[in-house]
Amino acid sequence: CRRGLGRPVACSVRANTTERRSEYQWRKPAGFDTGLLVYNSLSKRKEPLILAREGTATWYSCGPTVYDHAHLGHACSYVRFDILQRILKKIFGINIIHAMVITDIDDKIIKRASELNISPQVLTQLYEKEFMSDMTKLKVLPPTVYMRVTENIPQIIAFVQCIINNQHAYATPEGNVYFDVKSFGNRYGKLMNVQNLSGEPGETDKRDPRDFALWKAAKPHEPYWEAPWGKGRPGWHIECSTIASSVFGNHLDIHSGGVDLAFPHHENEIAQCEAHHQCEQGEILSSFRTQAQGMHKPVCFFVLVPG
Ligand SMILES: [Zn+2]
């Protein structure tokens, strides 16, 4: 998710991407029309903001990966989302139920914790606390609920199993589980026009280079959870689809995240949700995808949020 603190460069898949213009036909969801127009990154134009329930918006945010200090890119994104939420609340009287995921297990966390010779848990607790403190200093209102990945592993395992059962994912003898992009046909890639994919180095057990990990087998000395496919941990994207679905069911009004994470992260979130819920234009993660610019751009040049 908003692979905070630097997630950006290490995309699990590299690709040349170009935005599609007006190619995807947005289908207006049923519900209460607020009369507001919001930029929809799926259709690439402004669309009416339609809520499932009058007066209440469900909102999911990709949150930080807590392994380092928050930088200006993060601050920018969350301040922007906060402004949008305040406008909806204070001017239009819309109650917002906002869930944000905290990524507290992933490759970068494991690597950083190992470099510092501390446990991933100690590292993530430190930076989670710092992130929340930074947001308070920036006067960004907290979400209704923060959800940590490590506290939702059974839900993630069940979500992955459901995608396997729906024949859109497969487990390998190595203990990895991949999303089967080919099985999804041209439904994959609706957010971004994706070409020339090459897999993550070292992944040799995929059926197709475009396939992406839902579950990663644990390497020696890495933290792991037991799953039907072996010991491992969630892949990069699955946490958001699972947690958004756990909190909001199969309909979400607004999804927000960094525009530079549109591919592969948000693209894969959409595919996972549609494969899980067996719907098109996922009734989840698709009503609106408000993306802030430049969330992850400062990769080498970090301006830290003042402490
Ligand atoms: Zn996300």
UniProtKB/TrEMBL annotation:
It holds the Pfam family tRNA-synt_1e. The keyword ATP-binding applies. One of its GO terms (biological process) is cysteinyl-tRNA aminoacylation. GO terms for molecular function: ATP binding; cysteine-tRNA ligase activity. Residues 53-278 form the tRNA synthetases class I catalytic domain. One of its GO terms (cellular component) is cytoplasm. InterPro entries: Cys-tRNA/MSH_ligase, Rossmann-like_a/b/a_fold, tRNA-synt_1_cat_dom. It comes from the Eukaryota. Keywords: ATP-binding, Ligase, Nucleotide-binding. Gene3D superfamilies: HUPs. Belongs to the class-I aminoacyl-tRNA synthetase family. PANTHER family: CYSTEINE--TRNA LIGASE, MITOCHONDRIAL-RELATED, CYSTEINYL-TRNA SYNTHETASE. This is Cysteinyl-tRNA synthetase 2, mitochondrial. It comes from Erpetoichthys calabaricus (Rope fish).
